[in-house]
Structures are given as structure tokens and as C-alpha cells.
Amino acid sequence: MTRDRHNSAPSRRGSAYVLVLGAAMIVAMIGVGGAIASRTARKAAQLDSDGSALSHAAIGALRAAAGNAQNSVAWRAAAKAAPPLSLSVDGIAIAATATDPDDADLSNDLTGRVTFLATAMKGQARRMVSMTLSPDDSLSDALGSALHVHGNITVSTGAVLMSTARVSTNASVTGGTIRANLAALGSIAATVSGTQTTLTSALAMPSGLEARYESIGTTIPLSSFSGRKIQYNVLGPTKNPFGSTNPLGVYVIDCAGNDFEVRDARLNCTLVLKNCLKLTLTNTVLWTTPRADWPLVICSGPIHSDMVALNLSESTAGANFNPSNMPYQGSTDFDKVDSYPSMLQGVVYSASDFSINSGVCTLEGAAIIGGEVKLAGSASLRIRYKCDSAPPGFARREYTADLTSLARVVE
Q1: Structural contact between residues 89 and 57, judged by C-beta atoms closer than 8 angstroms
Q2: Potential cystine with 115: which of 101, 108, 142, 199 (Cβ 3.0-4.6 Å)?
Q3: What is the pLDDT of residue 178?
Q4: What secondary structure letter does DSSP report for 151?
């Protein structure tokens, strides 16, 4: 019995030791778990903080990239080659890329949309947001008029200027009959059948048009044109008898200080006439554009019309103006018996003057003239205003944002 009592004490002490050791381990584990939980909580809090900062940074990057965007081939080409925004602020790496969501080629078309993807990164945290912009089609103040002139408008006795929409000028109006609403920054001394308004400030003129359209155009050497004119022929995006075609229908001619003429011809294109002494439209001309509201012509020099109130006739010209590769209103043929209305359909721009000495010039679209407009003799300028959206370079702004496209991107 004594031996049994003697042996039981160490056993109880061993059990107590095991219990104490177990409790210590549990306490230690609780301590380690608490430390881990504390670090996890701090990590989560840091991630939440980083996430909030990154979200703000990504939105800021998106705004900056979109705000600096320009709807030009130069900007599009640069944005295609390299991210338009890339920097680091307070340890946050920020970048924005631009892509074309429609055909994946950002620089081939000034009418295409642009999608920006902005990314902000810090450590393992990342935020991405995207938004799509469309070329702005809100008309500039100048293009809000059927005819806007930077200089004076002079209509002689016997001549007439008529328009279905406002005619405006940053200068004065003198002379004969104007059958339209009229707005002028200067004085008005003419017979006006519509309302008369005094502008409070000059309407802004477009700029950089020649370079903008030259960058997407196909050059035709002046030597390709006999007598420096297009006559008895057709020119468009699918037919160019003077060289290679341009799918956008934009052709560039450097006139090298010479005159150029379009006479008894059908054009379905935008002509960029550089260094042009004068463009003359003679007899009968049907000039349209392959894209609604695009400019018919961007001319560095004055434009003069000698057009008459007759149809463009294939039999008179001895030419087929709707061949197989250039239909008119969807129709083609091989004969030379058709006739077409002689008129201009689109936006006309001259950096200089516009004049008519006699005859009738009919424009369905709009005109912006950087110099003066002069109608002499029995001249008649008839404008049926039609401009639902602004061609590139003629809008108030470069892009409009589709706010419904703003979204966070999750990888």
C-alpha cells in the first residue's frame, strides 16, 4: 500500500505538467492566431484603402485620357502606337490605352469610336475602368448656318441669295435681295425678306481642315489632269481615272499656285485643293460625297461658280456618268442617255472667297467661307440647308462620351 501511494504522486505531477504545457500551447496558439488575424485585418484594411485610392486614380486617368483626345489621324496614330497616358503618382502606376471597338483599327477612320481602358496598380491591388467615346456630331456655330461668311456679303442689284436656313457673317451685308434669315456682326444694308439679327460676337471658323483631310486622302498629281480640270468624267471612292482609289473618297491635289476647274462632271468625293489660285465650277456639275454631310471641297483659294440651270447630260458630254463601278442612286448602265441634276450636295469650305457673276448655283448642304461672298449681275445662289451631323473638324467638340459605357473591368 505504501508503495502504491508513493508511486501515485509523480503520476499526478506529470498530468499537471501536461495540462500546463497544453494550456501554454493553446495560449501561444491564440496569440499567434491573434497576430495573424491582426495582420490579416491590417492587410484587408490596407487593401480596402488601396482599392479606394486606385479606383479614384483609374477614374482620374480615364478622365485625363479622354479629355486630351483629339479626333485627328495624328492623335489616333500616336494612341495606337503607344498608351496616351502612362505615369506613376504616389506609388500608383497609372496607364490608359485607346482602341477602336468596331474594327480594331484606331487610325483608319475619323468617324470611328474610341474605347479607353484606364488601369491603376499598387502592389497586388489593381483597378480598371473603361469608357467609349464617339466623334462629336454637334454642329459648330458656323455650321449652324446654311451659309456662314467670315468677311462681307455683297449682293448686287439683280442678284439673289436665298436659303432655307440662316445666313450669317462676321462682318457686314450690302446690296440686293436676300431671301433668308440674316445674322451679322456688322451692318446690314440689303433687302432682306427674313429676320435680321445682330451677332454679339464673331462665330468661330474651323481650322486645320486641310491637314486633317490630307492625312486620310490619296494624292493625285496635278499633271494627271489635262488642262488642270476634271471634265466629262467621274471621280469617287470606287473610281479614279487619275490614279489609285481612296475608300473614303478623299483626294488631295496640290495645285502649286494654279487654277483648277470642275466642268461637266460627276464627283462623289471630298477634294482637298492645296495652293489653289482659284477653283471654278463650270456649266453643269453634280458633286456629292460618299458620306452624309462630309465636305465636298476644302479649298485654300477662292471658289467661283459659272454653273447654269441645266442638267448634267451624258449625251451632251458624250460620257457615261453612272458606270458599273460608280452607281448613281444604286443604278448603273452602259449607255450615255441619262441626265442628272446639276448641284452641290454636302459642305463647301473655302479659306478665301466665293463668287458668282451669273448663272445659278444650287447647294444642298452648307457652306463656310473664310473670305467674302460676292454675287454679281444676275447671279443666283440657292441653298437648301441640310446638315444633320458635323463632318470631322466642323464640330463644337472633338468627342462625346457615352456615359452608359462607363464600367469597371474585372479580369
Answers
A1: yes
A2: 101
A3: 97
A4: S
Locate 323 and state its grid cell: 458606270
Residue range 357-367, pLDDT digits in tens: 999 999 999 99
Set of cell numbers at residue 58: 483609374
Stated pTM of the model = 0.76
User: For residues 148 and 368, is the Cβ–Cβ distance under 8 A?
Assistant: yes
Burial of 14: CB neighbours in 10 Å, binned 0-12, 13-18, 19+: exposed
> What's the 3-state SS for 254-322?
ECCCCEEEEEEEEEECEEEEECCCEEEEEEEEEEECCCCCCEEEEECCCEEEEECCCCEEHHHHCCCCC
286-312 confidence digits (pLDDT tens): 999 998 878 999 999 999 999 999 999
Cα angle 337, 382, 309; round to 5? 30
The tens digit of pLDDT for each residue in 155-198 reads 999 999 999 999 999 999 999 899 999 999 999 999 999 999 99
Contacts of 26 (CB under 8 A, 6+ apart): none
